[in-house]
Write a structure and sequence with these properties.
- The chain is an alpha+beta fold and 178 residues long.
- Helices cover 32% and strands 23% of the residues.
- It has 6 helices and 7 strands.
- The chain has helices spanning 2-6, 8-17, 32-45, 83-88, 128-131, 148-165, and strands at 23-25, 58-65, 71-78, 95-97, 103-107, 112-117, 134-141.
- A 7-stranded antiparallel beta sheet has the order 1-2-3-7-6-5-4.
- The longest helix has 18 residues, at 148-165.
- The relative contact order is 0.19.
Length: 178
């Protein structure tokens, strides 16, 4: 699952950045096709004013180094904040625009990244793209010297994989690094 989402090379680099050791999968991952169909189904059932999507976040890849507290987590869901909320500052501080309404927020010294990406799902409400962006989040815990460029690259890879696999009909331009 993690290799399919991020690529085996990035997972190998992740393991090296976490200090080596045995990299263990910490969760029972949902197969990628189920992850995609679940996200699309939530978007299709969404209506303005609905909050049902708030509790519908997936954790497709949780990894850790055995015998340590070093962790990598990935989260995928539909954002509670619209791009307009983010632009207006109503979604909190620290968001940066990366063009075409792709936003990223870096926290914990770059070890926690959140990206919000407009993603129009076929068959969804006409306001879905404008009000319900795809949210991709990655975080590394207990590895203070972790390469933040690798985390940025992994977050972008996950976002591109989801945008292609859902598929996002508006073809969001996700850069190679966030």
């Amino acid at each position: 699952m993690c290799n399919e989402l991020f690529g085996a090379g990035r997972i190998d680099r992740l393991q090296g950045e976490m200090g080596g050791g045995t990299l263990a999968v910490l969760n029972a991952g949902t197969p990628v096709d189920e992850l995609m169909s679940g996200r699309a189904s939530v978007a299709r059932s969404w209506k303005p004013g609905s909050e049902a999507h708030y509790a519908n976040t997936s954790r497709p890849c949780d990894l850790g180094i055995d015998g340590t507290s070093k962790r990598f987590h990935a989260y995928v869901g539909w954002s509670v904040d619209s791009p307009e909320d983010i632009r207006a500052g109503d979604a909190g501080e620290g968001w940066q625009s990366l063009g075409r309404d792709v936003y990223v927020r870096r926290e914990d010294g770059g070890l926690h990244l959140t990206a919000a990406i407009p993603c129009k799902i076929e068959g969804s409400h006409k306001a879905q793209e404008a009000e319900l962006p795809l949210e991709v989040e990655t975080e590394v815990r207990n590895v203070p010297e972790f390469d933040t460029e690798l985390l940025s690259e992994m977050t972008a890879q996950l976002a591109r994989k989801l945008a292609h696999g859902l598929p996002c009909r508006n073809d969001p331009a996700v850069p190679s690094e966030l």
